[in-house]
Amino acid sequence: MFEELRRGGVPAAVESLDYERRRVDVAGDRWPELDPGETAALALGERVDATVLTDDLDARRQTDELDLEVHGSIGIVLAAYADGRLVAADAKTKIRALERDSTLYLSDPLVTRALDRIDREESDGD
């Protein structure tokens, strides 16, 4: 995400959201295995006790050590569905697209649990 923001600023879908840009110091070797985006996310999360959004496994391990809440791409899709921002079919399509089209490693059990959760919540709402 760091590179995406550096290249193109804030994505159009984010423009309508309430957000605040903050600078964080990412110098040093605190998390040398992480790229600058994950390092900045961890530093900010720690500084303001914020939820960290990342799919990077090493960064997720660090959030455990820092006792920070963390969510990945599938969690974001599930939250959008739970908030009514996505209907079930669109949420499932996005999860399948993440599995099929992204470079993320998403385990089959994780994808299955996410799709099953949407199915359960959809049937509970009927």
Automatic annotation (TrEMBL):
It comes from the Archaea. InterPro entries: PIN-like_prokaryotic. This is DUF3368 domain-containing protein. Pfam families: DUF3368.
